[in-house]
Amino acid sequence: MAIARPATTPTPPPMLIQTADGCALELRHHPGPGKPVLLVHGASAQSGTFRIGETETLVGHLLGAAERFDVWTLDWRASMLRVRDIYCKNRSTDFSIDAAARNDIPAAITAMRQQGVTAKIGVLGHCMGGAIVTQGIVEGVLPAADVENVVITALGLFYRAAIDNVVKAEDGVLEELLFDHHQDLLHPTKQWTNTVCQRDPGDGDWDPLLQKPYEIWKQTPLPHKPCIDPICPRVSYMFGMPYIPANIPKIHATSLALQFGYIPVQFLLHCCQNLRRGYAAPYVPRDRRGRSLTQQDGLLKRDAFRDRKVTLITGDLNSLWHRDSIDTMYEWLLRGRKTDRPPVVKHVLPGYGHQDLHWGTNAPVDVFPKIVKGLQGILDPA
Q1: For 120-165, how does the pLDDT look when each residue is reduced to its tens digit (9 = 90+)?
Q2: Which of 188, 243, 253, 298 is the most buried (most CB within 10 A)?
């Protein structure tokens, strides 16, 4: 009996683009006659996250919508398709959220302009893609003249997570991995060796700093059970459960290994620093002896959003980035005088988690129309 497969959209060949700090990224184009849009995936994932779905892909939906968008996707420095090559070219590459926000999306927009795009570009950022989009806005590298309509799914400038992720962010393991054990990349299933640039290290246990607590965690009710794909519990331990399995039965059974890969430990550590603070702030290089984080709220600039139209979307069951991440972003944008607030709408979708916002069986009906309206600048609360 044939295994049911998810819907996919063909992957265009990549255009290699260079960032100001020397990272080679991949930009892909799905041509269409309508408004130009750029889709930015989460860390450890890839742009293919928008080209797969249980019944329809987001890219396919955007190409087939009444607007018939001109769709571009970016594989940035934390993409599973780029991170190893970038690292192996220059092991001292800055993999912080700051570096990605300042360099990666601006490089994509420059390349789109060079390819003939003249209109304002709608941007969708998912997960850490949403984090670097919103940080790029407040850092002034994504001016409203280029990017006006913004859709953020799951995460913006405010970092909230389930309690098990909060605990993991506090345990100091990532600092030990990076500064003491000199481990620069982490993969859901592969072991780590310093020869990663010469040969694939293959699947195996993580460093004992991670493997031992993972073995304990597997005995708790937190992992999804049963799960026949070994990547499922490992990626859930790394990030928190990144989907509601019942919403993505075909992808869960056939395609998870193609959707998650290497993530820089420095990038993951910066995520944990922001989670401990609760909001986006510059990366603090330090060792285990200086774990306290001083208040740094210089990135919380509401004025940067004044000339934008912002759509915020998450699932009420999101256990990777808690819905409070989007709730707080929404409430923060609505502070102050009404004349100073940006147009903003929020959608918290019942029964959805994280990746299933884009992959789920009913996402084309429940989620995609809201994304379309957001990219069009139509802020409909329905």
Answers
A1: 999 999 999 999 999 999 999 999 999 999 999 999 999 999 888 8
A2: 243
Arithmetic mean of pLDDT over the chain: 94
Find out whether 187 and 262 touch, Cβ atoms under 8 Å: yes
Residue 18, Cβ neighbours under 10 Å: how many? 13
202-260: pLDDT as tens digits: 999 999 999 999 999 999 888 887 787 889 999 999 999 999 999 999 999 999 999 99
pLDDT, residue 295, reads: 78
Domains of the chain: 7-376 (3.40.50.1820)
- Whether this prediction's pTM lies above 0.90 is answered by yes
At 217, the amino acid letter reads W
